[in-house]
Amino acid sequence: MDDFFPPDRPRDVRPGEYPVWDAALALVNRDLATLLPEHGPLRLLALPHWPKEPTDAGQPPEQVYVALPDGRRHGDDLHEHPDSTPAGALVDVAGAAQETVLECLWEVWPVCPDHRLGMHPGLEDGRPVWRCAGSRAPGNPEHVRAIGELEPAHRPRSVRRRERNRNKQSKRDGTSASQ
Ligand SMILES: [Zn+2]
Question: Is the residue at 161 inside a domain?
Answer without folding.
Answer: no
